[in-house]
Amino acid sequence: MAPGILANGFHDRTTPSSTLPTRRRPYPHEGLRFDPKLKPKSYRMTGTSPDSKILFLDVNILDSTGNDPYRGDVLIHGERIVSVGSVPDVEGLRHDPKVRVVQGRGRTFMSGLGDAHTHWTWNNIALELLGDIGVEEHTLITARSALCYLDSGYTMCYGAASAKDRLDCVVRDAINRGTLPGPRLLANGREIAKREGELAAGITAFAEGPLEMREVIRHHAKIGVDQIKLSMSGEAITETVSAEECFFTDEETAACVDEAHRNGIRVCSHARARDSVIQCARHGVDVIYHASYTDEEGMQMLEKVKDRVVVAPALNWLYATVYEAEPFGYSMEKAEQVGYRRELETAIKALKEMHKRGITVLPGGDYGFAWCPHGTYARDLEHFVKLLDFTPMESIVAATAGIAKLFMQEDELGKILPGYYADCILVDGDPLKDIAVLQDHSKLDVIMINGRIHKAQPTEFLNTSAVPPSLQEKKSYFNFVAFEDDLGRSRIGHLDLGDSTIQPLTMASGSPLANLSQVIELGDEGVVRAAEAPFPLSSVKLLPPLADRDVLCIGENYRKHIKEYRESGFAAADNKVTDSPQVPTVFTKRSTSITASGTDIYPHPGFTQTMDYEGELGVIIGKAGFSINEKDAMDYIWGYTIINDLSARERQRDHRQYFMGKSPDTFCPMGPVAVEAAALSGDIRVQTYVNGEKRQDGTTADLIFSIPKLIETVSSGITLQPGDVIATGTPHGVGVGHHPPKFLKPGDLVEVSVTGLGKLSNRIADPGSKNPTIERVLQKPSSIPTYNLDRTWGGVGLTKVAPDHYINVRELGSKSPDAETIVFIHGLGASLEYYSPLVQAAGLESNYRIILYDLEGHGATPARASSTATLQTFARDLDLLFAAKSITSATLVGWSLGGLIAMFFAEKHPSRVTTLILLGPGPTPFPEPAVEVFTKRAALVREKGMEASGVANAVTTAATSGATKSRPLAISAVRQSLLSTHPEGYAKGCIALARSRGTVITVENLRMPTLIVAGQEDAISPVKLAQGYRSKIPNSQVELLKDVGHWHVFEDLEGTAEAINRFLGRL
């Protein structure tokens, strides 16, 4: 195919151009003809100087017309583009001191991006929590989201709903006035829904029937929205309102569209369901969100009205919920259970067909949720290419010119053409070759909105002196602070030193930041503000910025301090300290001495009576280095923090070295913040106060050995690592330097302030207090790993059944106190999700209390590496589960290994098991030949994992029937179950089976009614084994499933459900 010719479905012809390479037929959005009466108000952004001129030289111009990119120059005057490609008098402009000139070096110059499905008021938490946020905090959240969009290269946002009536409108107007930074916005209000059909009550405007809906829409129009939104269908994640159900009637939808259009505003709709899409097409809804379950009837109706309707699928929400929500506690199995995987597959098929038929489909991914966070908006463009078969050009044009068409400003937004607003981005990369480059904020070198530069490094300009100070971009820096969240996990935020609030920070990907080492590794562009409201500093426990290794310290680096210390009488007798040392004195403070700002300092009674303070600047190393030259040393610095080098002077003297006197527990307060080196320039001042009295005051200009010299010295024989901290020495004024000495005593408040780093504050504790360090050390995580814990984000949502013993449990079904309980025990290589379809297919939830749980190391239950799993430990866990859930007696359903556990438990606790249902139970005792097989298998998966070891494939093949192997979905379910099992959990299950050779379950003692379900082609637990159990268990029966192997539920769900129902029905 010739370069520049795009072919996809109905786009198969080209239109020649006399000046540029060929282009394709018109894009779908070019055929849109919205009613002119619905054009939003013309908002004008203020704040751009009409005299401003910016010249971009040698850029690769991607103009969003569909033409191939081409090299050229671009001139911007005021708020608009005036020349593209060839700029008149370019040399004169280049040398004009009033013109800011950017050397493009072939980078891509393109329109700012647009989002058709924007929620500025969402803040990466669950929808139902948004209604509880105060309007003041929510305004800040909305403003931050707007800034995040602009930081991500987005200059057009089409509002899809606001959590409160006027938030979108207020922030939109503030941006247009120039009060706040942000993109252009067409604002929405609260989404309109019927009672019991809403997604989240706290953010919904309720209305029942056409008359009330008209009234609500008039209210929305009155407060100044540009469009309104109907919530017509449900959402799978709620598990209460189905995504396939339409809650509006035709009469209601028609009334809403009529009333909105009467008021000159357009209508959007949350419409996943088939019937809701049909109603939207029939009655004139302008923007359809999602449209996942569009069938052929709906497709034909959309095709007929494609000149007036836009579909914005919010594809990333579906994709992320299925594939990326597990770290946030929403498993892939859960997503599949509630229907998201099916919805994603159905939506992709429908959207491809829409694209083929020329229906306008625009990007916008419903961002603002935990696993679909703000700042990741450009993922939609990649999804359009990889999932919907858009070409990169089609995806980009949809996100630029297509959104401009949605704005009804296609003649002045969304393209790089003369006369258009200068909403532009300069990209270090070619998005036509790699569409994902637009997700990398570090590659967005220049961002402009309305002719104003929002982001650009000073080095971008050929002549930075020509830039007026008022227009120069000033970079802001984070005051990185470490703190514990409400779950006890370490997090990183930005501390506002003015109002003492913390703004949580995340990686640019949206993942939480756990420590400063991650910040250092990610670099400047890898950290962004989280879309969460700030909270008071006083509401959390502060942590030191870095606390995992010893601090490197410099002694005697200020001349006046050398003098005072030498004259104090506490210098060791053989200490030959001079006023002009030839090399720095280097020592370390043990990591256990590190504590945070705000903590109390343990006074160590009996160890020291001469506690002294030393306020210091701490240098934080940013990259590894060895034998670093002094002239290069500043390149190795990441940033700075504050340190109080507390000292026990008599110990320092008596041991004739520093370590013992400097390293007592809590003797190294650090923080409260760490700041990048670029944030601090010039001399840095260090001051120390005790109970408000200034004791120390010095600057880095007074250092004997400069910071670069210290780095050269320390690295001469030691490899410095990222995160190493060097305390640079203390000025004069320490307690021991006074006459008489002013040592610290209980109750004293010591405060060290450093330029740009705030104040490190600590109080000396009472002598009768406890040393907090021993408690902290004892609470440190064990060096023995606990596997599988990351799936629940450190254990969130697990059920505690004993001290330090947690199990993943799901309880379903009847809440009646009289309901019988059924406990399901899965087998090796599965999880509780194995039983979810069975519970539903058998209809057990209506009459029974259902308990599903994961075995050790399976599903979401953690596994400690040192624990040895056996039938006995599995039965013990089941016993603990009975106690934790207050189960007096229950029916046990056990599959495979779970069948053995159920029988073993029933033998030990016959009064607590009313009924047994065994699906392909394993043999007892375990046969000797199988012991070696499972022992080797355990070692294999521990070495190579489930996939590379071949175990997943081998088990899938060996444990399913011939008929099942011809059904890809069933085979995929088996493989997915095995691959989702942690290798350590699988290995423990194997070892438990191998060790059960010495455990004999006397099945003849099982007197409760027992059903044994066997697959006729089960090679693992063959029919002969089931019949053997039948002959030994007194009150038992066997049900055979035809064409079924060992994975009964996946291979024959209906047959398994029917067998269980027949059995339970006879009891």
Low-confidence stretches: 1-23
CATH architecture of the largest domain: Alpha-Beta Barrel
**β-strand amount:** 15-25%
Q: What average pLDDT do the residues reach?
A: 91
Report the total helices: 30
Q: Share of helix among residues?
A: 25-40%
| CATH level 1 name of the largest domain | Alpha Beta
Reported by name, the CATH topology of the largest domain is TIM Barrel
Task: Find the structural class using helix and strand composition.
Answer: alpha/beta
What's the shape? flat
Rg (CA only): 34 Å
Number of strands: 51
Major β-sheet annotation: 8 strands, mixed
Task: Give the distance, in angstroms, between the N- and C-terminal Cα atoms.
Answer: 70 Å
CATH H level of the largest domain: which superfamily? Metal-dependent hydrolases
Please tell me the total number of domains. Answer: 5
Task: List key phrases describing it.
51 strands; TIM Barrel; alpha/beta; Urease, subunit C, domain 1; metal-binding; 23% strand; 1067 residues; 7-stranded mixed sheet; hydrolase activity, acting on carbon-nitrogen (but not peptide) bonds
